[in-house]
Description:
Blueprint: H1 2-35, H2 39-42, H3 63-73, E1 78-87, E2 90-99, E3 102-109, E4 115-116, H4 121-131, E5 138-144, E6 162-167, E7 174-178, E8 183-188, H5 190-203, H6 215-247
Antiparallel strand pairs: 1-2, 2-3, 3-4, 5-6, 6-7, 7-8
Amino acid sequence: MKTKMMIYYRKIHRYFGVIIGIQFLFWTLGGIFFTWSNMDEIHGDFNRKPQKLISDLKDWQNPTVVFAQISKINQVDSLVSFQTINFLSEPFYQVRYFSAGQQEIVLVNAKTGEVRPPLSQNEAEQLACEVFTPDSEIEKTEYLLEGMVNKHHEYRNQPLPAYAIKFAHNSGTTVYVSTEYGQALKFRNSNWRVFDFFWMMHTMDYQSRDRIGNTLLRIFSVLGLITILTGFVLYFKTFRFRRKSKVQ
């Protein structure tokens, strides 16, 4: 009976080991990469210039005037956020609001109160060069719209439209500039892409990468636990069997 149980445990341990062995390898490789990585490099902070502070505070338009200007273009139902940003050395109000159930965002010149149009490619490239360091030439610029960014894209779940500005730098950095926010929202480099791949394998969420409680991960976690427990059982059973054999 004990021999049959041992065979049964060995089969479970062997088959489950084969099934989850590759996933265990990715979990281990991912863990090594995570622990040996500098998150500032992953996020591109080493290549991001400190944000310029706004020093010119004279003759700013009153928010009431700003809302009146926006209302000429679109109905403002409710306010989401109202903040100041430094856009190409000029102060702007970045206003997010709801209009007819849709969230909108506009940039308003803090001095003149004028609502400005979305960024042009030239302005986006200027902004990317302003925030990216060291100085580097632009290799390619791509205009991204809804439908061009899927769940696997490195700019997924971010505001669109946006310009993807790739620099000819050894870090392989692409700066993503939102045309409506007037800001460089994301830096994506080679280290981030490796991190993203291992994070996908770690969470076993091959779509959004963020669903840590997905069914597949839960199944493999349970299989891994069974594999470890059967391994312990086999070890202690084998250890006792060998001790008895030596005594006899």
